[in-house]
Amino acid sequence: MRPSSKTTILEAARRVAEHSGIGGLTLDAAAQEAGLSKPGLMYHFAGKEQLRVAVAEYITANWEEAMLAELGKPFDEATAAERVRAYCRVAADVAGGKADLAIFVDSMHEESWLAPWRALLRRWLEEPAPLAQSAPDSRSVDMAVARLAADGLWMADASGTSGYDQAMRAAVVARIERLATGMEQEE
Length: 187
Description:
Blueprint: H1 3-20, H2 27-34, H3 38-42, H4 48-71, H5 80-92, H6 97-107, H7 111-124, H8 138-159, H9 166-181
Helix pairs in contact: 1-2, 1-4, 1-6, 4-5, 4-7, 5-8, 5-9, 6-8, 8-9
């Protein structure tokens, strides 16, 4: 498959999911949005399930690329705090927020759609300590809170419920970054 055809189809499928959720992402809807016939789309994606998994993989690949750009260095050279900060910056960026959030939320219902998200999060975010072990250190807690705050801001922005002006939003993002990088403890 030509990369441009695949990208066109996946971007069209992303737009359909933004408007209708992943449940509304049918072969017919994606083909129509992409300006293709259904058989033309099926040449690339044999079924709805294959298309839905490909959309989740496409979005998480875009996130990975954005986080690597935000990181500004090779992944293997980054600290856990730098990786969490990069994740938080991308999650707080509303550029592709609504579509990605709709697909992510709908992915909760099907493991094959959720698997790309799980892999991305496992790679970028520090795993929480098992509950049976001693209490987690404060840095791990701050990074977890930063990640959850960025996810919450993503949801509020994508759903249009945050209501923050530009100054407040910038202050919230700055606080999330300070938590992720450990600067909060130094103040």
